[in-house]
Specification:
Layout lengths: L2 E3 L1 H14 L4 H17 L9 H10 L9 E5 L3 E5 L5 H19 L1 E9 L9 H5 L4 E7 L21 E5 L6 E5 L6 H10 L8 E2 L5 E2 L2 H5 L3 E2 L4 H21 L16 E8 L7 H16 L16 H13 L1 E3 L1 H14 L9
Parallel strand pairs: 3-4
Antiparallel strand pairs: 1-12, 2-3, 4-11, 5-6, 5-11, 6-7, 8-9, 8-10
Helix pairs in contact: 1-2, 2-4, 2-10
Length: 352
């Protein structure tokens, strides 16, 4: 049975772990809150689950404890940074804050960040954007990663290449975070850890045969692109587009020697102020109408569950867990308890 913990207790615990590794408290708070936001929204494979690897990177020196990103270009409405392996969540929040500070003047601000340590869950960055009544687009790729094979090939080429989007609307924002692979690598790893098969044949083994066994991926296989075996050319095209936006614009990616970069990301983000195009109320009228019409769509005859509208479940889950406690996935609790024992930092008490 899953256990619940107060959100603030989890934030403080993760922050204490990161400061114990030498990260400045103000930066540790940002990193800890990013992972917490992911679990609040229900993205459990990229939330507090990622604390262990991020601690290891800080302790080994793979993540820089200090310093600022190197500014490669800055035209006001466009900027490009080299993070030089600063902690991913901290540097991406820094870039978003910079974009939000500029967007009222410029209307649209676009940024790229290269060589950022892994930035984890993209959805975790969206609440602060939508709460400023802005539209946000965020994507990242991993130059050293080859996990997703194009349709018709058994050779893994792309990384998972997630894209996240948010727009203010009515009672909840339009919000999503999806990868250009049929399933995320985190779910493949979780299935392998638990000795389970995947819900469908989302993988190819090293011979190119479809498989639902996570061991096929670990043994030189690949993950299918969005669209699967039949329409994967669509996912491959989108993967290429996102690598152009994140790697090519940032000036660092497939053409470079990235063998030592591990999970470091190339990042693309864009913040849009709807008020730069006209009335904010006119914008909200349109987005709210879209979601209302979506909710009123007639269900298929055999489906009794509510329609899945991007953002509705995640936003309501976030509000509920902030009020009643965060329900952590069981394996995350196990991992955090191990970190508590190893570090001597007390694990938060469960509230249910």
């Amino acid at each position: 049975m899953s256990q619940r913990y107060r959100a603030e207790d989890l934030r403080q615990f993760a922050c204490a772990l990161f400061t114990s590794a030498g990260l400045d408290a103000s930066r540790a708070e940002v990193v800890a809150d990013t992972f917490l936001q992911a679990d609040l929204l229900g993205f459990t494979t990229h939330g507090l689950h990622r604390v262990t690897t991020n601690l290891q990177w800080l302790q080994s020196g793979a993540s820089r404890l200090q310093g600022e990103p190197h500014v490669l270009a800055d035209r006001g409405n466009v900027f490009n940074w080299d993070a030089e392996f600063l902690p991913g969540p901290w540097v991406v929040h820094r870039a978003i804050d910079q974009a939000l500070a500029r967007v009222r003047e410029h209307g649209v601000v676009t940024a790229t960040v290269r060589r950022s340590q892994h930035i984890a869950c993209l959805a975790a960055y969206l609440p602060k954007i939508v709460e400023q009544n802005c539209v946000g687009i965020l994507t990242c790729s991993t130059p050293a990663e080859h996990t997703v094979s194009p349709q018709g090939s058994k050779t893994p080429l792309f990384s998972a290449n997630p894209i996240a989007f948010c727009a203010p609307a009515g009672d909840y924002p339009l919000l999503f975070d999806i990868s250009m692979s049929v399933t995320a690598g985190g779910y493949v790893s979780r299935a392998a850890r638990e000795g389970k098969k995947l819900p469908g044949k989302y993988l190819k083994d090293r011979d190119g045969q479809l498989s639902d066994d996570p061991r096929a991926f670990a043994d030189g296989g690949s993950i299918l692109p969005v669209g699967g075996a039949d329409h994967g050319y669509k996912g491959a095209a989108l993967s290429a587009m996102l690598e152009v936006l994140s790697m090519a614009l940032a000036g660092y990616g497939r053409a470079d020697d990235v063998s030592e970069d591990d999970e470091a990301n190339s990042v693309f983000l864009q913040i849009i102020d709807p008020g730069a195009f006209g009335s904010e109320q006119s914008f909200l009228r349109q987005t709210a109408a879209l979601l209302e019409m979506w909710e009123q769509c007639e269900r298929e005859g055999h489906i009794n569950t509510p329609l899945r509208i991007p953002g509705k479940r995640a936003w309501h889950l976030r509000n509920r867990q902030l009020e009643k406690g965060v329900e952590l996935y069981p394996s995350i609790v196990d991992d955090l308890k191990k970190l508590a024992e190893k570090s001597g930092i007390a694990m938060p008490e469960a509230i249910s």
